[in-house]
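Quick question: who can interpret this fold?

. . .
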Amino acid sequence: MIRMEEKRYFGISGIVCLFSIFINGIAGQTTANQQALHTHLFTSYDAGEKPYCGGAVNVTLDLALRQVIDLDEPQQILRANVWVRLKWQDCRLTWTPSSYGGISNFIVPYKYIWIPDLTLYDSVSDDFVGLKEYRPNIYSDGTVYYNFPSVLESICAVDVEKFPYDEQTCKLLFGSWAYHGLDMDLQYKNPQGDLSSAVTNVEWTYISLRAERHVLYYGCCPEPYPDVTYYLKLKRKPQFYLINLIVPSMLITVMAALGYYLPVESGEKVSLQITVMLSLAVFQLLVADKLPPSADATPIIATYFNFSLFLVGLACVMAVVVIAIHYQGNRRMPDWLYSIGVLKLSYITCVHIENRPPADDRKTTADSFAVKSQNHKVSPAIKTKSNLTLLDLEPVVTAEKKNNEQKDPDAAPKRVNQDDWRKLALIVDRLAFYLFMIVGVVGTSIIFSKFGM
C-alpha cells in the first residue's frame, strides 16, 4: 500500500517537473525572440529623428472625453480629463512576425521611438500631461498606436449672457509646434469625438464633441500648418442656481410689496425696503463672483438684479413720500388737491373713503343763527316763524361772510383736518403698490423671456 502511494507521488511530481520545463522553455524562447526583435528594431534607430518614408508622416488623432473637471468662468479656463489616441506609420519599425516567434506587436517605452510633438495650442499648463509617460504599441507593419490619458487645461471663451441657462463651446486646438504640414500631416480619425466613456458632471451636460481640421499659414513661415480642433459643447444645469439664486431673489422682491400694507404708524415701511435692497445686493455679489468680468455682454441675471434693485429703490422712495404726506399735521389741504387726490383717485385705487363737503360749507344752522343774532338785527317776521329753515337764514349767512371778508380778507376759513392727509397718504400708497406690481410683473416677464425658456 505504501509502495503504491510512493509511485503515485513520484508520478505526479514528474508531470509537474516536465510541465515546468516546457513552460520555461517557451518563456525562454519568447524572451529570446523579444530580445532579438528589440535588437533588430533599435540597433540603429534614432528616436529624435522623424521617420522619412517618402513624404509627410500621417498622424491620426482621436479624442475621448472622460470628464469635465471644472470650467472656471471668472478665469475662463477649462480643465478636462481626456484620453488621447494617436496613430502613425514608422517605416523603420517593421519586421516579419514568423522570424521572431510569431510576435506581431511590441510594446516599448516612449523614449525608444519617435513620438509626434502634439501640442495643445491654448494650454495654460507648462506640459502636455501624459504625452511622455506611457508606452506605445508597435505592430509589425510599422503602425504605431499611442494611447494615453491626460488632463488638459485650456483657455475657453465663456459667454455668460444667458447664465444660468447658457451653453458654452470650448475649443481644444491640437497641432505640431515643430513640424509643418510637409513633414507631419495631422488628421482626425472621426468627425465626432468619443463621449461614450464620459463621466457625468454635476454642473454640465455634454452636448457634442465635434472635430474639424484646418490648414493655416502663419506670417513667420511659408509652409502650411495643419491642426485638428475639437469643439466641446456644454450645457449648464440650471437647477442649482434656480433654487439658490433666482427663486430666493424673486421672493425677496415680492416681500418689498408687503411694505405697502404696513401702516405708517408702525415706523417700519422704509426699513423693510432697505433690508430688501441689501438682500438683493448680496445675491448680486454672489452672481458677480461666479461670472467673468466682461464688457462685451451683460448677463441677463445681472440685468434682473439691477431691475429688482431699481424697483425696490422706487418702493423705498414712495414709502418716504407716503410718510411725509401722512404727517402733514395742521397744514391746509387745497380744495383742488382734495378733489383730485382724494375724491377722484380713491375710485381709481379702490380705496373707500367717507365723502364729505368742503369745510367752508359745513356750517350748522345753529352757528349761522348765532352769528347773525350777535351782529345783525333779525327781522321780526323771521323771528315769529316757527318753521325756520336754511333757506331763510341764507341771506344772513351770506351777509356775515361778506362782512368778515371786508374786515380781514386774509382771515378766510381754512380746511384743517388731519384725516384728509391720512386718506391722501393711503391713496398714494395704494397707487404706488399697483405701479410696483405692474412694473415688476411686466419687467420680470420681459427679462426672463430673453432666456428663451
Notes: The first strand starts at residue 57 and ends at 72. Confidence is low (pLDDT under 50) at residues 18-28, 358-394, 405-415.
